[in-house]
């Protein structure tokens, strides 16, 4: 989406180990940076909880980031839980028949 700056996201450690919060855009323009930042932040954590309530814009690239983290978590034996998944991502995930992958990320 035009007008969304590449640095339009904010990453913060949440209260407690393995807790993180993402705010701003989770989109094509930010996907690579968000993916790298999250992957780095999750390293060494056995259980991760990511609060997405601050996400203001999301698209299919954002869904791709979340699904990439889900796959890595499964391969590495890590639990991963998303809270407050943006409606746009839920709709795209449902359309693509991958919604269950987001809700069962910790399984």
CATH homologous superfamily? STAS domain
| N-to-C SSE string, H for helix and E for strand | EEHEHEHH
Please give the CATH architecture. 2-Layer Sandwich
Our measurement of the CA-to-CA distance between the termini, rounded to an integer number of angstroms, reads 33 Å
What is the CATH class?
Alpha Beta
Over all CA atoms, what is the radius of gyration? Answer: 13 Å
Q: What is the CATH third-level topology name?
A: Transcription Regulator spoIIAA
The overall strand count is 4
User: How would you sum up the major sheet?
Assistant: 4 strands, mixed
The amount of helix comes to 40-55%
Note the beta-strand portion: 25-35%
What does the model show?
- The N and C termini lie far apart (33 Å).
- The chain has 107 residues and is α/β, with parallel strands linked by helices.
- The longest helix has 17 residues, at 60-76.
- It has a single domain (11-103), classed as STAS domain (Transcription Regulator spoIIAA, 2-Layer Sandwich).
- It is globular and about 30 Å long.
- It has a 4-stranded mixed sheet with strand order 1-2-3-4, covered by helices on one side.
- The protein contains 4 helices and 4 strands, in the order ββαβαβαα.
- Helix 1 (31-42) packs parallel to helix 2 (60-76).
